[in-house]
Amino acid sequence: MKSFKFLATALIVMISGILLSSFFSATRLGYKNYRFPYKRGGLNERQAAAHLLDRFTYGATPGQVDQVVNMGLENWFQQQLDAGLPDDTLNNRLSKLDAINLSNSQVVEKFPPGFVVRYRAIKANVISKDSVGKAKNIKAYNDTIAAFSTRKGFRPEQELYKQFISQKILRATYSNNQLQEVLTDFWFNHFNVSLTKPECADFIPSYERDVIRPNVLGKFDKMLIAEAQSPAMLYYLDNFASEGPPAPAKPNNKPTPKQADNGSMMMSGGMQAAAQPVAKPEQSMMMVDAGAQKQALTVKTITPQTNVTGLNENFAREVMELHTMGVDGGYTQTDVTQAARVLTGWTIYPLGRFGFGSAMQGLVDKIGAAKMNQNGFVHRGDFLFTPTRHDMGQKTVLGHHFDANGGYQEGVDLLEMLAHHPSTAQFICKKIATRFVSDNPPAALINKMAKTFTEQDGDIKQVLITMVSSPEFWKKNAVREKTKSPFELAISSIRGLNANITDPYQVYNWVSRMGEKMYYYQAPTGFPDRGTYWINTGSLLNRMNFGLALASQKIPGVTVNLAALNDHHEPESAQAALLTYSKLVMPERDLDKTIKRLAPLLNDPQLVAKINNAVAKMPASQPANLSPVQDMSSMTTNQGASNPQAPAKVNAQVSNNQANTMLAQVVGIIIGSPEFQRR
């Protein structure tokens, strides 16, 4: 009896401990119980599950609606918020990409730009300085450079970019933590940097990996500070070169560390002279101010050897206008200038002795890494705060006074102030709602999200919970209201067909062809997040082209088994296949109108020829605001002048593939249909 009581008591204590542990764990993480009010929007549980998958993944995989329903919608969403699901399949695929986990310093050493390779070849006496740009035998000159690169173990930068782009496609397709990948895309676009600017390009892989992805479900201010200190952003918006006025000369007239610095913000030592004849121009973005209104983007051309000094307002302006408060957030041009002064001296720690990232090497060598802290320098990873380049005067930003002789901390304080500004809460929450709810989200929803943003210290998880727990998220006019970007279309097609990718870069080529060249959007705004940007007659034709190519096995490195999706049951007719596969790739939708719209295309033996004819006759200028639910039949009747820049024609071989032509054509048409363009 005593033994029984002892066991019972022990069991009660153990259960109580588990419950208390769970309670305190949930409290510590800030989670709260929430229920999704999808029934108020007129949705059943399966429709609600499909809506969640449309919004928070890159598309449902076969049978995934059942999985979400079985585990419970809220449980599935919480699992995605935790982002801790094992990703063994994905990691196995990523293991073949050996460059995606390199540090910035390793990238600088292994993937040097061309002008650095030439400089190092000169220093090694492999080529002469006079031969740069003047070689009589170009082939022999290039062969010599190539042989030198091979001996040194250098690899072309394009290989780095190709691996980086490939990993994004693989993550979006195969990761079990889909929400984390969707948010990584969202926040990268919000804090956009571009491969079009060579100075920052090599640092973009680590920017997404180390700055964006780890912070997408955390506190907004942490991500803001991390992006402000990243080499990619510091170069992209030129804050690496921003500095205050020179410090007064010391009485003994000895040079200060700032005066002793070689001054080059692009590279060190004698590299300037050697690189100058061959360095390619690069673009630096300058946003022209006119009060609080956004003006056109202008481009300032600089070269790697240029000594860029003085105050640069690029980052200060964009951190207010694009990253935090928004263009109508209430700041002035004076605030921009004052903020830029606060952020002077925020630059790059030396990433090597050659090329981009080497600017401060001479200064670090002179002071000594061990003595930097006691001299007011701050080193955080690849970031360096240099007090010798900082504006030590008084500043006032948005009414907040910064005393003279401040340092690194005032920059952190500025960013924290911006991250917690009421305008930031509204601006950020509107962008989140625009991405996940509708192109024009209700003000009431934005206000609720902004209230959570403020009360929860910018906790992105809590903002998302508020959004998805609100009736506005589940209203029928918000379901499938969003238009897929080309990337979303491609990945959702691949996931929906359970396709296998062995060459991700081929998918990137198609996404670019459909209008979204990932990581190459030049403006700091990032890609627009509205359907009118993506959809016009030309884009619909390219999307149809993609669908037919994918379903017909015409994309190298991507294989699809259409029969397996239907348990190898062959449909009796094209009409039956249309109904069956529409339900498979567009689960829980009312497909009556879609079937009615697409059926005539199946019965037309000249479908491919008519689409090609429509492309040839497409007007040179297409309206930018065509509805994504435009009737597909208009694609075969569109009239207009010849367009020499029309999208490429549908591959006529698709209609000649006798093995599985009918099924491939059916599935291709479904993917290209207006209904599949919606999420």
Overview of this protein structure:
By secondary structure, this protein is mostly helical. The protein is built from 33 helices and nine strands. The strands form four sheets. The protein has a three-stranded antiparallel sheet with strand order 3-5-4, with no helix packed on it. Strands 1-2 form a two-stranded antiparallel ribbon. Strand 6 and strand 7 form a beta hairpin. Helix 25 (486-496) packs parallel to helix 28 (537-551). The radius of gyration is 28 Å and the shape is globular.
Q: Keywords, please?
A:
3-stranded antiparallel sheet; globular; mainly alpha; 679 residues
Write the layout of secondary structure elements.
Blueprint (H helix, E strand, L loop, with lengths): L1 H28 L15 H12 L7 H8 L1 H10 L5 H7 L9 H7 L3 H10 L14 H15 L4 H18 L3 H13 L7 H4 L2 H9 L7 H9 L2 H6 L20 H4 L10 H5 L6 E6 L9 E6 L11 H11 L8 H10 L3 E3 L12 H7 L10 E3 L2 E3 L9 E3 L2 E3 L5 H12 L2 H15 L6 H13 L4 H9 L2 H4 L11 H11 L3 E2 L2 H10 L17 H4 L2 H15 L6 E2 L2 H4 L8 H12 L6 H11 L4 H10 L44 H12 L7
Helix pairs in contact: 2-3, 3-4, 5-9, 9-25, 9-26, 13-20, 17-18, 21-22, 22-23, 25-28, 28-33, 30-31, 30-33
Class from helix and strand fractions? mainly alpha
> Uncertain regions: pLDDT < 50 for 5+ in a row?
10-30, 253-308, 614-659
- Oligomeric grouping of the chains: single chain
Shape: globular
Q: In angstroms, what is the radius of gyration?
A: 28 Å
The number of distinct β-strands equals: 9
Q: Give the strand line-up of the largest sheet.
A: 3-5-4
Distance between the amino and carboxyl termini: 62 Å
Q: What is the strand content?
A: under 5%
